[in-house]
Amino acid sequence: MTRLDSATAVVALVAALTCWFVAGGAAWAENDAGRSRHRATMAATMAGDEFHDLIVRKLPSPTSLRMRWHPQARGSRLAVAQAERRAVRNDSVRSTPFRALAPDPLPGPPLSDRLTFRFNLGFGLDGGDPADQPISGYDQLRLYYFGDATISSRGLFVPSLSAYAAAQFRFDQETADCTIDKNGSSCIEALPSVQDGDGVKDRRIRSAYAQLDSFLSVPWLRPLFVRAGRQYRYGPAIAHFDGVTVGYDRSLFSLGAFTGRSVDLFASDAMSQSGGFIAGLDGRVAVYERTPVPLFISASMLRFGGVTHFQGNLALQWSRDIAIRTGLRTLGERVARTSAQVRARISEVTTVNIEVENRTNSDWMYGLYAIERPGPDAQPRNYLDLGVPLPRLYADLRAGTVLYDNIDVLIRGGTAIEHRGEGVMRNPHAATFVEGGLAVEIRPRRAVAVGLSGLFRMYERDLVQNIDHSKEVDPLPAHAGASGERSFVEGGINLRYTQGARKLTARAEFYGRYFDTQPAYAEVDFEELDYRLGGRFVIEAWPSNRLRLKASYDLSSSLSVAPDLRGFKSLRILAEGQL
Amino acid sequence: MDGNAFSRHRVNWLVTALGLVVVACQPRVSATPVTSADPSAEKRFPHGDHNMLACTDCHGLDAVLRGDPAVPGARDHAPCDRAQCHQSDFLSLPGSMCAVCHEAVDPTRSGGSPLAPYPPEYSRRVLPSQFSHQKHLDFERIEARVGFHVTCEDCHTRDDAGRPTAARHGVCGRCHAPEAAPPGTPPMNLCAQCHRPGHSAIRRQRRLITGDLHFDHGNHARDRRGTPIRCVECHTASPNAHQIGDHPTPVTRVCVGCHDDFDRTPSSSRMYICQTCHRKISRYIGILAPRSHLPPLERPEDHTLAFRRDHAADARADSQRCARCHTFMSGQSRDTCDECHQIMQPSDHVITWTEYDHGPAASARADRCALCHRSTFCVACHSRLPRSHLPLNAFRINHGLPARLRLRSCLTCHNPGQSCDRCHLSQGMAR
């Protein structure tokens, strides 16, 4: 340091100290002067003739009504309960109330609060008018009956026991004499249904489980719960199984484990993976609950079909409404997907979500149950072959708000960028694309809502160079991966009239879709536009608080890709009851 | 050290020194608590400058306990005109001191000098009390302390017009008078127990009934059937308010519940009649009814278009809230997504979705499908012949055109090497 630097530092230090003394001294002097004034004031007051003794030695009785506490109230059960409540407020373990396993002798909440039963029954009529001569075995109308029922209870027999069951059914009624062809297809239906699949049952039980919560009286064991039966569990993928889940759930952290037999409601016998062993572990730690560090960590592991899947998330919980989350999923020992998400709720009605995810070619094909491409074992049909998963980067932005306290707006945009290596065939099912959408809902009147929506998606496809030779059986196109949609546009408008929830609602919706498809051969000129128009009309009424009636009618225009039909129609009527 | 480096060091030192000077010269925080009051209120009467006095020096304790703490100075300017206080100002010609309380001082005017209203409109409360509605409406707690519980009207008594009044000191004194206050509760002779200096000041003006809105509590004592309207029906958040400052105003949607109900509201005051509450009806964009005015229970305000897409975090955080309206849900607090996702369809699943439209969407975002469907759901249909393939013999001959146009659809189920080559290669056409 030079002498000049030293001199500058000394001068600065002296100046700083001077300022500190001046400022501090002034404040001290001001306070001291105040105290002196106060002392002088008091002295003068006491010395003065008009001295008023303002010190209260005996309080006058209030002139208004007094409410005096009841002496016996102290130490009562209520006071003890109140003290306990204050204690548990400081301890989240104790904040979990104990619910006994034995029936509660005291009258609990009304039965309607403890037991809910809901069912709906309806019938549907689907149809499609043939454009020309009816096809042999074509079933122009399709009548079916469907229904759904859920029942849930909370503390019905014993306070700690709750249960939930959900089931659905659909029965088709044959409306035409169907020709059995050699492929085993009974009827040519106007509208296909998953119900037509081989081995798909008419009745399906989605969930049926019982759960014990807070059934142990030891305070630190109260967050323990056990759920047994058919259930769903969420982790790296959605696990649906018959089995048992045991968990320990606190606001600070949670742990859980489950095991059982996998359930598949729509699997045919050939493809069924039902009965496979499935097990998983999961846990989370909300670090932000107890420390200033705004972190949230979660991890879950799933074992199914001999493969272990792992999903880990690390979230920066900036506040209750703003979170930044990163995730990693592995399939076996390979990284399958990494992701990041920013979620912000700026106000009650304004939200912004940004998602970025990077998929590797180790990712599963579709979901947990299709992790590999169908092999020769699945012949003669590949069933659902979406090709080899290509590494892909996907980004999505969604933002929504309400303008003028009335106009509900949602805007979104996304892009998928395919990381196709050199020499790798393009997958027609996984093309690079960019998409955007907008939806608006306006309420010109209190009971009337008008909605507009639009969506477009543009794909990147290679130029097709396959030549179509007329009047010859052409070779299969070498660049099949180039075929597929080039763009897609969708627009819709809907009108809704409502008198409020559980009263009367009527809705009319009109939409149009247009697909621009790149043909397999360069010379094929797709003369007909691949578009469709349609509408949907729904009316929903609640004659009482426990009964709902609903009717919906869907129809579409004719489709260029289905020239044999003039269009589709569907009528569904259902009644829903709730007890 | 070269010249440039020397200059850089000098500048660094100078900046550091300047920083030190600036920091040191900052005014130091006074040890005396300062009230956080609105500048306009402070201008009228600077409570902060009177911190050295006890509250009862000016607001006589007897008056406080009587429930009517008079404005200081009402008794011939006492105690402000004490010798040790502002006596000299009162012995001088009228000046700025008079303007603290009077609008004007004119000895020639009959009727004396008019007082300016205090506190000023739109000011903040000076030393607002710390009051928890939650504590006072906790029936168990209050009963444990005093042997009975209090209700809203015990404190907010109604005036002659039936309007609830603000709770004043007299009301508090019924329980908090020094000889009556239960142990652990603030007795009224200790002002600072409630009026703590530094406590965040709140605004005085109305927060809801402003602008062209008009409202009369007197008309809301009973509904059309004659059933009393409980305070909590509108002031829904009051039982949980811990501070005066976080005491929220009623939300408009609670008005809708009654004003759309035939039984509770006369037809002249129905919600669709804007003049029921508004004096002016705006045109154009303002005529759009706010979402808070929508028919009752139609939908929570946060259920926007964006919410339909991004509700996972909210549903996970409080799935019991979902179950209040979506009655097919279990009301459990964990793993409940399937209860909706297995029975409710997205709006884009229209009549052509299953057979023709879902392919591009599934290719673009298979994850979205996987929220509700497993791959076996897809295979249940994809393993069957589509309607376009039937009758199969005819389709074998005529499949060329649709295949040329929509080859990607074929490739969803067919592997060219296994399905197509059998015929195409057998006719001698090399690929």
What does this structure look like?
The complex is a heterodimer of chains A (579) and B (431). By secondary structure, chain A is mainly beta. Among the domains of chain A are: 1-32; 79-108 and 214-318 and 363-389, no CATH class. Chain A has three helices and 24 strands. Chain A has helices at 3-47, 77-89, 111-114; strands at residues 115-130, 138-139, 141-154, 161-173, 188-189, 203-213, 224-234, 238-249, 253-262, 277-286, 295-304, 307-317, 322-331, 334-345, 351-359, 392-403, 407-418, 433-445, 448-459, 484-498, 504-518, 530-544, 547-556, 565-578. In chain A, the strands form two sheets. Chain A has a 22-stranded antiparallel beta barrel. In chain A, β11 and β12 (307-317) form a beta hairpin. The radius of gyration of chain A is 35 Å and the shape is globular. The relative contact order of chain A is 0.07. The model of chain A is unreliable at 21-49 and 58-94 (pLDDT under 50). Chain B has 431 residues and is an all-alpha fold. Among the domains of chain B are: 217-293, no CATH class; 305-341, no CATH class; 353-382, no CATH class; 387-424, no CATH class. Chain B is built from 22 helices and no strands. The longest helix of chain B has 22 residues, at 3-24. Chain B is elongated, with a radius of gyration of 37 Å. Residues 24-39 of chain B have low confidence and may be disordered. At the A-B interface, α1, α2, β3, β4 and β5 of A face α1, α4, α7, α9 and α12 of B.
